[in-house]
Amino acid sequence: MGTVYEADCPKCSYRGEFHIGSGLFALQLHRHLRFFDEKEQEEIQKLETENRIQKFQITNQLSFCKDCGKLREKTVLLVTGADQERYLFGNHCSDCHSELVLYGEQEMGHVLCPGCKKSELKFSEAGHWD
Ligand SMILES: [Zn+2]
Ligand SMILES: [Zn+2]
To answer: pLDDT tens across 44-90, in order?
Structure first.
């Protein structure tokens, strides 16, 4: 089950809501392919066809695009290959394709407000999602 977080800026009117973590369908890779761009989908399917996926993890992470200035939730896929190599998918902005800054749940206390860029956001748990 994932967690819904509300973000609040103490300095301006910025408010946000983010679905973070993993939902119920996180074990079904195919249901999530649409979250990735075409090139990534091809790479993921290639890894699968060649039986090179040892395990994988699908999670929503808080992401920030330095180019667009947008703070959003992003579905990210981390694959551990049969060769123990790790592959990360979904870590690029869906608008401008720049590499995103991804925040783990422990790092969410240090996220700068995308509105005023002066204060760190305050996150509070607002519920769960699946
Ligand atoms: Zn962007
Ligand atoms: Zn602010």
So the answer is: 999 999 999 999 999 999 999 999 999 999 999 999 999 999 999 99
Distance 12 CA to ligand 1 centre (A): 23
Q: How many A from CA of 96 to the centre of ligand 1? A: 4
How far is it, in rounded angstroms, from Cα 22 to Cα 46?
Answer: 24
Determine the distance separating the centroid of ligand 1 and the alpha carbon of 77, expressed in angstroms: 19
Distance, in Å, from the CA atom of 106 to the CA atom of 2, rounded to the nearest integer, reads: 14
How much is the mean pLDDT over the chain?
93
Beta-strand pair 15-20/2-8: antiparallel
CA of 92 to the centre of ligand 1 (A): 8
